[in-house]
């Protein structure tokens, strides 16, 4: 029944189908007026916002052409099917937009034929999606020119250049016979700056002891300080060190005087040892454990530092401290601090004579019985020398800084050194004499001076004292006599055989022996030598001819008389005193062969052991004989006999040395007496022999002219 109802004539059916199709389409449009109106309004709004792009229009036209082509194909194939099926129902293929109308009017067509259906809901969704995509595309096209990436920072993650043949060879074979070592390149030494709070300071001053009511002062607060702060004062460190050294010495002397004043034992000893020729006296504290059983052989007062005294102590009679057995000792005293020696010097050989440097008493020189010449530098650090704890005191025993024992050649002495004398002034034009072929000139930090050493064979050696700029703590490989860390040494300058250069043939036949030597202070090129035949030789350091060559006594002929003491006049005139073993005293001048004055019986035949001019009075000198008698001569008062004689009752006096300050007018004059027991007494003579007299030098000059 369905077939019958749906089969038409091929001609009439197609026309009717077309007519019905148009009618149904119109009805469909009426049913969807509201929807079309709504969609039309939306399309009007979209067209007002933007125009449809060209690509969208071309897509729609393609769809329309495809639909039209499909409808034409269906309409063309539909009459043929009707004929073949003999009145079979006709299937209508409709567009999607007319799907509902066709289904209502021709329900049999849907069941009998297959067609293409249009879903308007999905089409609307696709239309909305395309519109949103077009908006996003337009916005991205507008924003893309505005967005630009910044390539300001760029770096290479890996830069590996190609390896050439040489590098490949070194990489494979260049590490043979090598080892890896580590070094510190100081990369961890980094400085960092920090900021801290500034410390507020105030500058105050004070004075002690106060000389007035105001003893201190300064700003009350920081506002009173200068804007830039207090200026840093310029400090002279060398001057400050000298001041502190002097101040400490003064304080030590004052403390020691207070200690002596509180001990009655010292006062009693001073009263007992005082002599009739002196106003006061005191003793140096030689009661030290290392000085027991040692005899004093020599005393030396520094001509520059008047308070410095050197005392030579011989070998001990009994074994004591292990370190000091078979060693001689030289004590450096400060007479203002008599409680203990300032420095203690030791050496392996017995010391016969000693002296100090001419400019400042920082160097000590000594001659020994085995012919060596020793030097001590008192400025050295005490840690360089051995220490011994004796009782509660830590004593430092200084070993020699330099010894000529390390000089392995013929210039060293081979017999006991009897005299050591400093050459006090500059070396004039011959400053480099004997050093032209040496390289020591670059090592000297200051102008050098010379030391003269004479042995009992009449060999006079001149040594240049050289101070090195650099100190070698490991010791020198060339200077074998220099201690490790020492910087003072002796360089041999010249040698002179005094027996051949000073004495004529008739005197040389007696084989004179040289005993003592002194250099003229006003002209250090000239020196005089005492012998054991009563003659005094005259020579120069460069072996020049001088007159007179010999200074003789008033008696003619040669006698076995030893010259035990010689002392130059300290007030400028070329005069000197000679003390002999027969007790005679001679006063010579450098221009005359025979003495100006001679005293033969002043000591009753006792040998003279020491003789010295007074440092404060030109006409006064002191004499010590072997019987421990002290004679005071005042030529202005009596030019024939001594004006005073003092006998030391207690024990024998070995030697003496005078001390005083001629630069001052206080008339302080003292005598240092070394006793056989090892004691050292300091006697301050009375003012009448110490204070200088008016026009004393002129009166002495007239007296010498008359004689």
UniProtKB/TrEMBL annotation:
Entries under Gene3D superfamilies matching the protein: YVTN repeat-like/Quinoprotein amine dehydrogenase (2.130.10.10)
The molecular function terms in GO held by this entry are: dynein heavy chain binding; dynein light chain binding
Annotated SUPFAM superfamilies: WD40 repeat-like (SSF50978)
Residues annotated as region Disordered? 26-50
Q: Listed GO cellular component terms?
A: cilium; cytoplasmic dynein complex
InterPro entries of this UniProt entry?
A: DYNC2I1 (IPR042505), WD40/YVTN_repeat-like_dom_sf (IPR015943), WD40_repeat_dom_sf (IPR036322), WD40_rpt (IPR001680)
Q: Which GO terms describe its biological process?
A: intraciliary transport
Question: Which domain of life does the protein's organism represent?
Answer: Eukaryota
Biased region (Acidic residues) positions are: 26-48
**What name is this protein filed under?**
WD repeat-containing protein 60
Q: What species was this sequence derived from?
A: Tauraco erythrolophus (Red-crested turaco)
